[in-house]
Amino acid sequence: MTIDETTEKRSTWETYASAWKVTDDEAKGKALSASVSPACVYRDPITELSGHPALVAHMHAFHAQSPGAYFRTKYFLAHHGRSIARWDMVIEDAATAEPKILAEGISYGEYDAQGRLAAMTGFFEAAPST
User: Fold this and answer.
1) Which of 26, 66, 111, 119 sits 20 to 30 Å CA-CA off 2?
2) Closest CA to 16 of 38, 31, 1
3) Per residue in 62-83, pLDDT tens?
């Protein structure tokens, strides 16, 4: 692992994470184009999908379920074209204007030859199905 690789991958990761925060398609598309391969594969305990259009649709569903929520990276490591990130899902608390933690998780990323995310796998405790 080099500091340069970790810094580079973290920058890519944070650009990807920013796509989860913005709500309009143009901003999402710009962030994803800069950070994620068009043929990406995304997995979490609830879903598996591939490609930017499916990822954007999933992000919109996330916003519908958790309006105002976004992800904040709290720990990041990278080596050999792979990364791991610990994150909090947060929402701004209207009373205090401070982020309130809704959930936490870990994500694993794999990067393509252009340095973009090719695969993202999120790990978190999913709510039980009823």
Assistant:
1) 119
2) 31
3) 999 999 999 999 999 999 999 9
Q: What pLDDT does residue 130 have?
A: 54
Q: Which residues of 58-86 are buried (b: 16+ CB within 10 A; e: fewer)?
A: ebeeeeeeeeebbbeeeebebeeeebbbe
Q: How far apart are CA 114 and CA 31, in angstroms?
A: 15
Could you please report the per-residue DSSP string of 9-39? HHHHHHHHHHHHH--SHHHHHHHHHHHEEEE
pTM above 0.70, yes or no: yes
If one counts every other C-beta atom within 10 angstroms of the C-beta of residue 125, the result is: 9
Task: Report the C-alpha gap between 76 and 107 in whole angstroms.
Answer: 10
Beta strand ranges found along 18-98 (DSSP E) = 36-43, 48-50, 70-79, 82-92
Q: Where are the domains of the chain?
A: 3-123
pLDDT at 1 over 60: no
Annotation: CATH topology of 3-123: Nuclear Transport Factor 2; Chain: A, (3.10.450)
The greatest distance separating any two alpha carbons of the chain, rounded to the nearest whole angstrom, comes to 46
